[in-house]
Amino acid sequence: IRILTAGESHGKSLVGIIEGVPANFTIDLDSINKDLARRQLGYGRGPRMDIEKDKIEILSGIRGGKTLGSPISFLIQNKDYENWQEYMSIDGNNKEDRRVTRPRPGHADLSGIQKYSFDDIRNVLERSSARETAVRVAAGSILKGILKDFNINVLSHVIAIGGASVSDGTQDINLIKAADSSPVRCIEKSTEETILQKIQDAKLVGESLGGIFEVHIVGVPVGLGSYVHWDRKLDAKLAYSLMSIQGIKGVEMGEAFENANRLGSQTHDEIYYNSSEGYYRKTNYAGGIEGGMSNGQNIVIRCAMKPIPTLYKSLQSVDIITKEAVSASIERSDTCAVPAASVVGEMVAITVIAEEFFRKYGGDSKEEIMKRWQA
Ligand code: EPS
């Protein structure tokens, strides 16, 4: 699977191409649009989400509701483009009054203009924006729909925001399913309330908040990934992809950081066998991956997101033209996007699983893959 994303945050539209999807899989546009809508939710998001109503428009690779085996291309319109046409036009006649010259600490702004020799930070922020994640959600949702035929599914929930953490980490998938009905995707009621208050307080003082979410992938067969090839280790590939989500600064497999402080005998999941289940474990400290391969348990990944760098309470910066000390630029921002990021995390993780699933059971069509998987 190869995914190419394109598009500027306030440009005409976002575009994606997915290559490597086998033929004859049914694509359900409604469920892709539902995932796009889930990404837009969450208490703490900014006014931009009132403007956008993300919908996928497929351009190629699907006929009569089924995949053709050819690259799937699609677009998601930026409704906000209407308000930005005079600034984001491609023909060189853009108005100058939304030029950005005060880089935000923590954003791509300063390193971006230095790297590309720009004198307008807008050239950087338009592409570094997390708006790009809409494309990755659409692509991941297409693959999620396909993997459902093989009983693989993905869920997520928020376990901490702004220092308020759930008291009890659960592995119960049925409880985690309830995350979608929480405004911050947190399934522990008392923590949800504390988080809502924290976001409200942060907004009042122009602050932003980060947090931690957990992605659970269920139904993954044994042996995706590799212990033979360093670059196909499943945990390594997941960490790489999840770290590529805007704002994600830490990725952990299972209870990796807690395991680091435990004894070996308290860290490893003991192995049992019975004739109906085959091999099984009673614990999942490893997060479903041993030796770079899926072990048949649920895959559990935790991601840490930093607080969004666009702050109403401006930080110290330097104007890139005058070199004078100034406060960093601000147009508008989200106070917290951790709930949205958890949905992005699901879709990015399932993309990696799909890639390794097709590598192991691969074929040109659903029929070929199904035979191998059933065998
Ligand atoms: C973002 C800034 C905000 C966010 C945006 C990411 O956009 P704007 O500058 O238009 O207010 O809303 O996220 C999205 C548009 C999205 O769809 O997630 C940034 O600077 O990264």
From TrEMBL:
Keywords: Amino-acid biosynthesis, Aromatic amino acid biosynthesis, FAD, Flavoprotein, FMN, Lyase, NADP. It catalyses: 5-O-(1-carboxyvinyl)-3-phosphoshikimate = chorismate + phosphate. One of its GO terms (biological process) is aromatic amino acid family biosynthetic process. Its cofactor is FMNH2. GO terms for molecular function: chorismate synthase activity; FMN binding. CDD domains: Chorismate_synthase. FMN binds at residues 127-129, 246-247, 291, 306-310, 332. Reduced FMN (FMNH(2)). GO terms for cellular component: cytosol. Pathway: Metabolic intermediate biosynthesis; chorismate biosynthesis; chorismate from D-erythrose 4-phosphate and phosphoenolpyruvate: step 7/7. It comes from the Bacteria. NADP(+) binds at residues 39, 45. Homotetramer. This reaction introduces a second double bond into the aromatic ring system. Belongs to the chorismate synthase family. PANTHER family: CHORISMATE SYNTHASE. HAMAP family: Chorismate_synth (MF_00300). This is Chorismate synthase. The lineage of its organism: Bacteria, Bacillati, Bacillota, Clostridia, Peptostreptococcales.
